[in-house]
Amino acid sequence: MLTHARAYAVIGLDAIPIEVETYVSEQDGAGAFTIVGLPDKALQEARARIRSAAAAAGLLIHKAVILANLAPAEVRKEGAGFDLPIALAVMAGFGWVNQDTLGEVAAVGELAFDGRLRPVPGILSIAEAAVRDGHSTLLCPEQCAHEASLVPGCRPIGCATLREAVRILNGEDLPRPVMERQPRAVLPVPDLVDVRGQPSARRALEICAAGDHNLLLVGPPGVGKTMLAKRLPGILPPLDDEQALLATRIHSAAGVLPDGSGLLRSPPFRAPHHSATTAALVGGGSKIRPGEVTLATCGVLFLDELPEFRRDALEALRVPIEDGSVRISRASGSLVLPSRFALIAAMNPCPCGSPDAAACTCSRERVQAYQRKASGPLLDRIDVGVHLARPAPEVLRNDRPETTLQVRERVLSARAFQAARGFVNGRIPVGRLDELAAPDEQGQQMLDQATTRLMLSPRGVHRIQRVARTIADLAGEIEIGSDSIAEAISLRLGSLT
Amino acid sequence: MTVIEFGSREYPERLCDLANPPDRLFVRAPVDADRLRMLLVPPLVAIVGSRSASVAGVAFARRLAGELAASGVGVISGLARGIDAGAHEGALERGGRTVAVLGCGIDRDYPAATMPLARRITTEGAVVSEYSPGTPPAPFRFPERNRIVAALADVTIVIEAAARSGALITARLALDLGRDVLAVPGAPWTTGSAGTNALLKDGALPLTDTADVLVALGIDPGAARTDDPEITGLAAKVLAALRREPVSADVLAARCGLTPAGAATLIVQLELDGIVVREADGRLVPTR
Fold first, then answer.
1. What is the rounded CA–CA span in Å between residue A256 and residue A74?
2. Could you say which of B254, B257, B259 has the minimum Cβ distance to residue A395?
3. Is B269's CB within 8 Å of A486's CB?
4. What does pTM read for this prediction?
5. What dotted CATH number matches B2-227?
6. What's the pLDDT tens digit per position in B242-256?
7. Residues of A with CB below 8 A from B272's CB?
8. Which ipTM score applies to this complex?
9. What pLDDT digit, counting tens, does each position of B139-191 carry?
10. Neighbours of A357 (CB within 10 A)
11. Domain boundaries, chain A
12. A-chain residues within 8 Å CB-CB of B249?
């Protein structure tokens, strides 16, 4: 008997519909179970899981000849999420499940030998695709139901076991209500008020948050670079609905969505270690997975110890930063993933990382090579640079840090000006700078003076214009005056930019 | 390219003071012999020093060269990064005369770090060398080149030189020629000034402002003293705070009671006026 079920394959952030067709013959009696349609290893092993889970449900299928086909055949299918739809189609082949009912739902989930359903990544993408295709009902592991319910229009049915799924489809059990899963204790976002003794670095962070500028922090170990970076998500505007769904979908597809987290509402913070490979940073690998640049989308990518990153990895970051999207090409296909994030990088002034310049033992050449490695690939992508030093006692005494909430208030109002102009300042195209970020007369004078005096490149001038626009927005000023220009000029690194 | 042979009418007379004058001088086009002659009219100073000088040292070289240029003094140097580059730039900034003497062929793009500057000097000043085109840079050629730098100038100025700097060779060659040497004193705990301090002990003239050079050249410094605009108000307070020791912008803001934004604005203004420079680690240093 021929039966079918609706499944989805997650490719990148999207899911595409997969038709599961099964042929079951109880007469042949040879007990062969074959899956065709470009399955990967995990999917091949579904046969064992399905047989065992069916047995646990009291349904013996091991004597029958079973053929399962996953169409379209040219799409590579990966993972254990196909266990449930294949199992249900097989059940339908035996007449244990009503084929008409099965035809109305989409199904996803991994089976355990005892018949329990295990959660799989990418539920959000699958739920979105199912709703788009007119399948509002999604049969899924109960742990995934809450995530699927985040998609407007999706009615997930969470099941604990294969048996329960069969009973619900047959109308013998009522679907249980989707339980909001208890989020794991949410770590409080660290507050900016904790960063004492670094007033200008805090100010630079605020400017970057307000205008979506990339930031480079240079300073010896222990002065608070990482502390600052971790506080950037807190002062960024919270995600709107669209961003929240996108960020959640990305984390879901990568299988890193914390259990029961629901929609991600605060900007993600990603801090890959400097030993990360290019594939880990930009995405890819034999099985295409979103990389750190995609996971940081709508949030922050923090690269600590910037010069320690592999050169090819840094090179590979250029395009994602510039374009806001990254194309990953592999033998199995190519796809485009989003990569729009705020970049914040940190480095020591020299490779030995000594606390002050006097104790440094590095040769000039080594320091230069170290700095060049950081500045080479990414220099022109960084708008704002700031030096951090060990806070002097008088700075600590006089410092009055503001809270994250106070700073975010200003960031939000600065962002409102930018929304009205249609561009965040960090992304104003060069061609529109003179229209959207032209300094007033005195500002222009100062910018001209700086251009000759500091030998600024045209790109350096554009960078200053963008940052000055943000500084003026933070102050609620329409015109970009010389004070804004001057402060923007100060936010550069003498040796690097 | 112009070639000036030893013994020709255009050959710089002062080079004949050398025990081993160069056989010929190659001058990078478009400068011709007549133009070079004008560039080499006295008064001339050689400004030399460390390649890895502090930012403040380079800024001082730049300002000094600029003020000398404004008083009609030409600047000779070696186009290296650091002090040399600062001196050339300062002179060009004020529309002054400057000549770069290379330790390799004039067709070589060396050193790479000063290429943009080299292009400016090629047209606005002159780039010369005793080595035929194609000669690669080599360590042993730089001291040899230094004798030309010293011989062309009336006095030689050394700004920041460590104990074994090439600039000290230039100074010694100048002394051998009977020319005056001026050296900028440095604090004894900065290794970057060990060489200049040693020169001072050996009798070099101390140099702390432009007037010292003008006096050594026999020019009345009175006319040139009006160069610095008077600094008043908050800027003066900031400058006073920096004079004690170089500090970061945060410390400066704390000492002067400024907000980070306020301090940044003021500092940039001082930077653009050339009164303050930023060291590689972000600390601020006054240049005067």
1. 28
2. B254
3. yes
4. 0.76
5. 3.40.50.450
6. 887 888 888 888 888
7. 446, 449-450, 453-454, 489
8. 0.76
9. 888 888 899 999 999 999 999 988 888 888 889 989 988 899 999 998 888 77
10. 14
11. 2-169, 192-401, 428-497
12. 200, 490
